[in-house]
Amino acid sequence: MKFPTKTLMCLIASQALVATAWANNPPTVPKPKPGETTTKYRAWKGQGFILPDRWDSKYHTLNGFDGDNSKSSIDPSDANETDAEPQKDLKPHYKKITNPTSYPARASGMLKIGKYHCSAFLVSESIILTAAHCLVDESSYNFHDLSTAWFSPGLHLTQELRSGVSPSGSKVTHPYQKCAVRNAYVPKDYNSSPSSKRPKDYGFVFLKNCKIGAKIGYLGLLMVPMGSEGTQVTLRGYPARNMNEPYLSNGRILDIHRHNYILDARTAGYSGFSGGSLIAPTMNYKCRINKNDHSHCAVGILSMEFEQLTIQYSRVNSPLIFHTLWFRTWEKYLNAPPPPDPSPCNYNCEVP
What we know:
Oligomer: single chain
Order of helices and strands: HEEEHEEEEHEEEHEEEEEEEH
Shape: globular
Strand content: 25-35%
Number of strands: 17
Number of helices: 5
């Protein structure tokens, strides 16, 4: 079908205007209430923005998703749960995840940035959470080059990847999609100095053309109630000292510092575990829709590890529920098709 020249020009101009309006009008950022604290976010690409640090009770929990084939995907063993018996000593307790392609292990994965790696986990179809210190340089606070970074959920490695180049004869199998990074956001006031205790050590990463969470599932998010000290927790990630294989570390919550959005847990962290998910199994029912739902909730992101006398513990940043809810809205906006032209040109359209 042939269009008159004027009509074709009008159609092109109209589509360009729609695309421009779509790009320049993102979802409305909620305005802070009087006296409410805020967090400024900076982006790897594009402009940052400001969000209120809101703790509305209706947003204390975000539902998880256990995948599109939940019955066969749930690991029936205890490889992805805490031990039935509490720890009898204070030493780090490790356990290899033998089936990383089962839920909830597969919602976690490795985030590879250059020659380094961190742990991360899905919180929606195409958004992952990780530690801010994995995304920015520790001295300059500039973003690392994420153009070649990738996230692989449920990854099982046969050899280390520390050098950035797979050793001769090694083979890395990505059980699901190997996802590139589209953009990343970290709090502008994140500070990694030891005296700062790394508050707000978290970052949102948007995956590029990768909605893997819609297939394999993702973790819900839960604000741990005050008074939850002693609750059993499980940390999942890819510790470098364990050949970057997927491991979990069991422990208990020690302290909760709500004003700093952090909590302490008696788990073993180590390099590579940064950005890993902390799950409290006894609280998972809070992010489930019904009894047939097997979703798990993350209650924090591993930031760093400390040792005090005989106690080894990890500092975890609590997830910001309201912020994640807003980012999920942003994700839907980015993945949605452009709206139709409200005033399509007809054959009598005149181009100014």
